[in-house]
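Bumping with the actual sequence this time:
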Amino acid sequence: MLPVVGIPGVFCSYLRPGMPHDVGMNDDNSRESASEPTSEASTSLATRPAVSSEVKAERNWALAAHLTSLSWFVGIPGFVGPLVIWLIKKDEFPFAAAQAKESLNFQISLFIYSIICILLILTVIGALIGIPGLIALGILEIIFTVIGGIQAGEGKSYRYPMTIRLIS
C-alpha cells in the first residue's frame, strides 16, 4: 500500500489494488466530480473563527514566553526571557503571564536537575548517570519548549512535565 497525499504532508488514504487512486478519479485517470466531502483538514482552515488582534497579541506573547527560554543557545540564561515577559505582561495579558510563569518554572526546574547531574558527574559511578542526564535534559528542554510554544500560539495552555512549580 502506498500513501496518497491530498494535502501536502497529510496522508489522506492508501492505495489498494483495484481501487481508484484519488477521490473523483476513475480508471482512465480523468477527473469526475468529487461526490465525497472534502477531508477534515482542508475544511477546518476555512471554518476557523476570526481571531481579534488583541487575542493574537496575547498568543504571540505567550509563544515568546516559551521560545525565549531557548536563548541559552546564544549565551543568555534560559530563565531571562520568560521572567521579563512575565514581569512586563502579567497585568495586561493573563494567558501570556500564566504561560511565562509555566516556562519560568520549567527553566528553574531544569537548572535544579542540571545541578544534580553535575554533582553526580563529580563522582565516578554518578558520571554514568550525570553525563547522559545532562544530554537528556538539553534534548527534553528543546522538545518541550517547542511543544509549549506551538500550544501557546494556538491559544492552548501548556503544562511542562517534570516541573517543580515554585512560582504560582
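The C-alpha cells above came from a reply further down the thread. Helices lie at 40-46, 53-67, 80-89, 94-121, 127-153.
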